[in-house]
Design brief:
The protein contains 6 helices and 4 strands; from the N terminus they run ααββααααββ. By secondary structure, it is mostly helical. Strand 3 and strand 4 form a beta hairpin.
Length: about 220
């Protein structure tokens, strides 16, 4: 064994030397945690990595070496104390399965509502307008045919399409019902006008059937 190794004190001798009060860590002789000087009768602990002495209470307090740069793995922290109504080791209660399912359903309904609202305001009015226009043109054809049959049967010439004419067309069986302008609801039959010059029915909103090519 080398002479230098023989001069190194053993662990027991180091502890005895430390307890004797003449051991100084880096010429300070103080605990790196609290900064207090070591007492002769104090219970101390050496860091197994850097061999720095600590007060045993200070070591237990931080659970590690107090010397900066001595990266000894820290001990795991003790678990938090149980709260009211909890048993030791029991995790804090989370939301129940029923509450999670309910929250998921509420979110799904909200999402469907938002998508439906977006769909009703984006692009659909155009399709609805075209559908109402086509239905109006179909009404114009039906009313024009009924007026023509009525004029032939009664041997008369109509000059206007008013409420009395609508009543006679329906009561005489020429129309099953008084047509309403699609998209405008009850009372919108007044939107239809009779053009006696060319024998056509015209809608003041959707125009003549002949105007379809321009739409």
């Amino acid at each position: 064994m080398d002479e230098e190794d023989e001069n190194q004190p053993s662990s027991g001798a180091l502890i005895r030397w430390l307890n004797s009060g003449i051991f100084f860590r880096k010429a300070s002789g103080r605990c790196p945690v609290c900064g207090e000087a070591f007492a002769k009768t104090a219970q101390m602990r050496l860091c197994p990595r850097c061999q720095t002495p600590h007060h045993d209470e200070c070591w237990q307090y931080i659970g590690d070496c107090g010397v900066f740069g001595c990266h000894q793995p820290r001990r795991p922290r003790p678990p938090r104390p149980p709260g009211d109504g909890e048993t030791p080791g029991q995790a804090a209660p989370g939301p129940s399965i029923l509450a999670q399912v309910f929250n998921g359903l509420v979110f799904s309904f909200c999402l469907v509502g938002v998508l439906a609202l977006a769909g009703s305001t984006c692009g659909r009015p155009d399709h609805r307008t075209r559908a109402n226009t086509r239905a109006c043109y179909a009404n114009q054809k039906t009313v024009a045919g009924a007026l023509e049959m009525y004029a032939l049967d009664k041997n008369t010439k109509l000059t206007a399409l008013d409420s009395s004419v609508w009543f006679r067309l329906k009561s005489g069986g020429y129309l099953q019902a008084i047509p309403q302008d699609p998209g405008f609801g009850p009372g919108s039959s007044s939107n239809y006008q009779w053009t006696s010059a060319d024998g056509l029915v015209r809608c003041v909103v959707h125009g003549l059937i002949s105007d379809r090519s321009s739409r």
